[in-house]
Amino acid sequence: MLSAAALVLALAAAEPSPAEVEGWLLAVDAARNAFGEAKITARASQWEGAQNQGKADFDIYVKGRDRALIVFRGGKNEGRKALTVGEKMWLLVPGAENPVPITPNQRLMGGASFGDVARMRLAEDFTGALRPGTEKVGDRTCRVLDLAAKSPRAPYPHVTLWLDAEGEHLPRKLLFFLPSGKEAREVYFTKFRTMAGRNAVAEMEIHDLLGPKADAITRLEYLDIQPAHIDDVIFTPEGAKAF
Fold first, then answer.
1. At residue 212, what are phi and psi to the nearest 5 degrees?
2. Tell me: the pLDDT tens digits for 71-130?
3. How far apart are alpha carbons 5 and 44 in whole angstroms?
4. Residue 181: how many CA atoms within 13 Å on its side-chain side?
5. How far apart (Å, rounded) are the C-alpha atoms in residues 83 and 94?
6. Measured over all CA atoms, what is the biggest interatomic distance in the chain, rounded to whole angstroms?
7. CA neighbor of 109 nearest in space, from 33, 13, 216, 14
8. What is the pTM of this model?
9. CA distance 41 to 30
10. Summary count for the chain: helices (H), strands (E)
11. What is the DSSP letter of 131?
12. Domains along the chain?
């Protein structure tokens, strides 16, 4: 039998270090944001049960940690743009002279917000604590991390992350909590695609837990991701408007 001291040492060895937990979060970020500079072709669609309630197609131009430009294609949103630079976001509407300041929580469609497609890096924005044991998400065995936001201004101060217990630690589920502790949004990562030798998120489903329709989901599909060289000028309100 193990002595008490040996048991303590064994349990300590099994406990991941903060650096190891941060490595898992970096792996999740790498799957969600496969390239530091890229053009992403995407689609958001809203579903109630098996009924499609509408969709929006858009391109996302990303550069680094904190710059993104969303350009809508087709339908009633044709030509609309959303620009993210650091903590600031603007909506640019065709025909309007000035950009409109918005927040990352402003809705893109259904339960999906602009922040879902434009920003959030778990390793930079949160610290993580591992729960004991594992839990299932569908047929996947997952580790569970309780995340605490580093910034007191974060819209979701607490998030729970389920990620694969083995392999590349791909994300399987996120649960977002309001400052009150109430569950607000649930995100399932439903498809992955190998791109340039990397496993990248290809589809996720977002459930708005505060909405009136329990069976409504918003599906975000990343149809194509291509590394690209993007001119810095488009990440200004003036440059984005002219783009």
1. -80, -15
2. 999 888 899 999 999 888 999 999 898 999 988 777 777 767 766 655 678 888 899 999
3. 54
4. 0
5. 14
6. 76
7. 216
8. 0.84
9. 18
10. 5, 16
11. P
12. 18-242 (2.50.20.10)
